[in-house]
Structures are given as C-alpha cells and as structure tokens.
Design goal:
CATH architecture of the largest domain: 3-Layer(aba) Sandwich
CATH class of the largest domain: Alpha Beta
Helix content: 25-40%
CATH topology of the largest domain: Aminopeptidase
Strand content: 15-25%
Structural class: alpha/beta
Length: about 450
C-alpha cells in the first residue's frame, strides 16, 4: 500500500503541486475556439518530461495533438493508463468571475480559474502521483501511461482515429478516467461508466424562402410539420416510440440493484435546484435514481425557426431545425438505433426530413465486482475513512467505450475534484485538501490493483 515516504512527499509538496496546476491553467486552451491548443499541448508534453516520462506528440489530420507519455516500472507487470484532456470550456460569462479565469489564484484553501478542476487539476494530479513515486521509490509500482487529448470539450471527434492509428500505444490493464469527485459532505465517489449518445439535428424545409403568414392558408408550414414529427417520437409516458429502441436494454442484476439502492440520492434537492415541480411521469425518487443510470432518453436540446426577436413579424418560416440528444445505456448500438430512427421517420411520411448526425458514442460500464473497481472502493475507504458512493454509471457521456470495448479494459472514474467545484461555470475551483486526498486515493488504488 502507499508508504509513509510517498504520503509525506505529497504533504510537503502540495503547494508546489498547486503552482503547477496554476501554471497549466494559465495557458488558454479553449477547444471550441481553437485558442491556445497547440501551445497547451506543448506545455503538457514538457510537464510529462519533467517527471521523467517518455513522450510522443501524436497527430491525425484536422485534430488537436494528443500527448502521450509512458513511465516504466523497475519490474515488468501491470500497466495502468490515465486518460485526461487539456482543453477547457469557454470562460464566459466573464462578469461573474471574481478573478480572471486564465490568471488562476489561490484563496481560502482553493485554486480558482478555468480548468483548475476540469480537467487540468486532474491531469496535473496524475503527473504528481508519478513524480512522488519517482522521488520516493525510484519509480512507479507498475507501468504508467498518460493519454491527454485536446478536444474532449467538443466531443472527442477524432479520438477514434487516434485509437485506430496508434492503437498499440493505448493498451493497458486498466484506465483511470479523467475526473472524479468528493461530495459536499466529504464522501468520495467511484463512478464505473457513462451513458452513450446520439446527437443529431433534424431539418424540415417546406419553402425556398420565408413567406407572409397570410399565405399559411395555402402554403405548407415547416414548424407544424416538425411538431407532428416530434409527436411520433415519444408517448405520454415519455417512452421512445421508435420500434426496436429498447430491444437491447437489459435490466439491472440483483447485485447491481443493491449497489444502486445504497447510493444516496437527493431527489428533493435535484428538483428544487432546477425549479421542477416533479420528476418526469411522476417518478418517485427511487425510480428517478434508477432512470439516471439505466433509462434511455430522447431530449430536445434546441429548436429554432422563423422570427424570434422583439415585437411581431408575421412570417411563415421556410424551415425549422431541432437539435436532439438520445442518451443510451450499455448494449445499445448507436448505428443500429440511427437506422431504426431513419426507418421510423420514413414509415411515418417524413422521408424528406434531413438527419444531420453530429456525434455518436456507445455507453460503457465496468462491473463493480471487477478487481480494479474493488481496489478503488477499498482505497477510498482507506484514505477517507468512510465507504465511498459507488455509481454504476454516470448519466453523462464520454468516449470511454473506445477503451472498454476495444481493449476490454476496466475503468474507474476517481479523482481530486469536489462536486461544488463549479466546472463549466464561472469561479471554477479546486480545494487543496481534495487535491491532497485525491492523489493518495488514486495511488492507493494503483497499489491495491497491482497487488491483486
């Protein structure tokens, strides 16, 4: 297990670790605007070299560079890989920041700045784990690989191409995913998967140009046609009505249901936080908790057509656009579901509707019984002195499937961040105590997995 020298090194150098987070977070790397991406990748590679890692700057056409590093153990054995990203969300709205987002500062025991939690603080924490091993033991207890991409915040569009081109580099016995949290009560969370997604845009065009609304008595309306289309996609119980959509949705096992039952869930807080009168379809708290893990969704993310400015404009819009995301659960195949959606539209008289797919990712999940998951759970209890919250899966999405499916690699999402860290929001922050304990937690997980 983690020895005293390692723990003392972390304690003695936590302020230096924080300075390296500030150093990295001071470099802009907003992938949505392609700001500072190359410069940040270069900085990340230099930080990998500083801990003694062998590095490669990987490239595919049209993509931000992927920074790869490797630090070998003294003796051959298992390999653990860290996946993180060096790109960040845009910083707006600027007026809500208490300090400049790309000039991070420390106050009241926390670092504030864009990316200090998601995901540069997590990335640096992984580097510092390796550094602590080198400084106190001459090297890590197993081979460590570092896999840092630069477009996670824009959908990891080229990640599959990287895996295809450089596949052998990414093989490992387990992967520690990008991010992990401690709740506001100080309880760590072990997350074991993510939902999949189909993100698309539906487009209906009925006219070559907008018309005066008086002509709606004779000319077709794209918005009304879209309303009819959307009404074919879900029933009154919020169930997706595309034939075959649920064919591959499995039920949770008794063991999984027990794990889910043990997971705390503040239904009232979730509803009040978003001003919701109740959950969809009148679900109970227990039903909502299960739905967030195992229920597919069909969400309307945005609709636009015609005139939406102040005052009135009597217009018959020529077209309408709808953005939708469908969240998927394990075993559902996005390619198969997209074909079923197209068939459903064609069969209901909407063969002319354009479907523009923006991204697709299958779901991924590691069994909580896997030795790597059990190592993370036991390590959390050892470091924090309390049983962690085990999440079978996150309701969100990420490219985890590329590792769990291609390499049959177990994954855990554990880390150094807090639930109240304000990721993607103004005043994003990372508490130094969470940084310290999270580093020990990840290291303890690695030690227990290597010993298993």
């Amino acid at each position: 297990m983690v020895n005293d020298k390692f723990e003392r090194y972390v304690d003695d150098n936590i302020d230096a670790f924080a300075r390296d987070i500030i150093r990295l977070a001071s470099q802009r790397s907003v992938s949505a605007r392609n700001e500072g991406i190359e410069e940040c990748a270069t900085l990340v590679e230099s930080m990998l070299k500083e801990i003694g890692a062998e590095t490669k700057m990987l490239r595919v056409d049209g993509a931000p560079p992927l920074v790869f590093g490797e630090l070998k153990a003294k003796k051959p054995g298992k390999t653990v890989m860290f996946y993180n990203h060096y790109d960040v969300q845009p910083e707006e709205p600027l007026e809500l920041w208490k300090s400049p987002p790309f000039k991070p500062e420390t106050r009241e025991g926390a670092i504030y700045g864009r990316g200090v939690s998601d995901d540069k603080g997590e990335l640096v924490a992984r580097l510092k784990i390796a550094e602590a091993y080198v400084k106190t033991q001459g090297g890590p207890p197993c081979d460590l690989k570092f896999f840092f991409e630069g477009e996670e915040e824009t959908g990891s569009v080229h990640l599959g191409e990287y895996i295809e081109k450089y596949g052998d580099l990414f093989n490992a016995d387990a992967v520690i995913w990008e991010y992990g949290t401690v709740d506001t009560g100080g309880t760590p969370k072990v997350t074991l998967g993510v939902k999949g997604i189909i993100y698309l845009e539906l487009v209906i065009r009925s006219l070559s140009q907008d018309a005066h609304s008086s002509l709606a008595a004779a000319l077709p309306s794209a918005p009304w046609r879209m309303v009819k289309l959307l009404n074919t996609l879900k029933d009154e119980n919020e169930r997706i009505t595309v034939p075959g959509w649920y064919d591959d949705v499995s039920t949770l096992s008794e063991d999984e249901l027990q794990v889910l039952q043990m997971m705390p869930f503040d239904g009232r807080g979730l509803r009040s936080g978003y001003g919701a009168a109740g959950f969809v379809g009148g679900m109970t708290d227990d039903q909502a908790k299960k739905a967030l893990v195992q229920r597919p969704t069909g969400n309307i993310a945005g609709i636009w057509a015609g005139y939406t400015g102040p005052g009135s404009k009597t217009v018959l819009p020529k077209e309408i656009h709808v953005k939708m995301d469908f969240r998927l659960v394990p075993e559902q195949d996005p390619d198969d579901l997209l074909k079923k959606l197209r068939k459903h539209l064609d069969g209901n008289g909407f063969s002319d509707v354009e479907v523009k797919v923006e991204s697709m990712e299958p779901a991924a999940r590691t069994s909580y019984k896997h030795p790597f998951a059990q190592a993370a759970i036991a390590a959390a209890e050892h470091v924090y002195g309390k049983r962690p919250i085990v999440q079978l899966g996150s309701p969100g999405t990420g490219p985890l499937y590329l590792f769990t499916r291609k390499y049959n690699m177990p994954s855990v999402d554990i880390g150094v961040s807090g639930e109240d860290g304000g990721i993607h929001a103004p005043n994003e922050n990372l508490k130094l105590e969470n940084l310290r304990r999270g580093i020990l937690w990840i290291a303890e997980t690695i030690e227990r997995f290597v010993a298993s």
